Amino acid sequence: MARTRLKVLSTLDTAKTQYYHFKAIIITGMGLFTDAYDLFSITVIIKMIGRVYYSDHHNGQNKYKTPPVVESALVAVALIGTVIGQLVFGRLGDLKGRRWVYGLALLLMIFGSLGCGFSICIRRACVLLSLGFFRFLLGLGIGGDYPLSSTIMSEFANKKTRGSFIAAVFSMQGFGILASATVTIVVCSIFRRAAGPDNHTLGQPPATADFAWRLILMLGSIPAALTYYWRMLMPETA
Fold it and tell me: What is the pLDDT of residue 128?
């Protein structure tokens, strides 16, 4: 049994670069793309939340501005979930197999993204607490994706190209950050035109800004959902 395993691993190490290598880069890279989109989109979303929920601040400098404590909490809660997700899902990947745990992390990302958009409350405190909770769940999924994406790619790659392939996977983070900014610009532009020309602060009145930030966060579930299907078709690594 041990000899068979060593033979399989040796075959993977010496295999020529083939189509399935590039397919694995795309599939695992889309996970990192989604991770970056979900993590970095919150920076602009916080400004939109200030526009919607902090219009009651009469001080000229603080009106429409999310307090630093709330801003830090919304950013940090996802990062805390990411750290926990890395530890938990990394260990589960060793115990239960890469593919199954990979899919579980993606489902958490999908559910977390949709939940962020459906932070259904009327009061400001309730909305922010709900958003923080779903950001934490999203962080768990993102944390699980980091070790699994790199591990799966390294285990599929041959010895000669392993470093390059892992670098290609993680380079998708840059595209995810770019996508989050692009989607935000497009969504805000659409809502601004729909609302009319007499708008200020991010080009949107509070009502349309409330829809816009939710939509931007929910759009993060689309690449995760598309990737889930292909991940479930990937064979388990040796």
Answer: 92
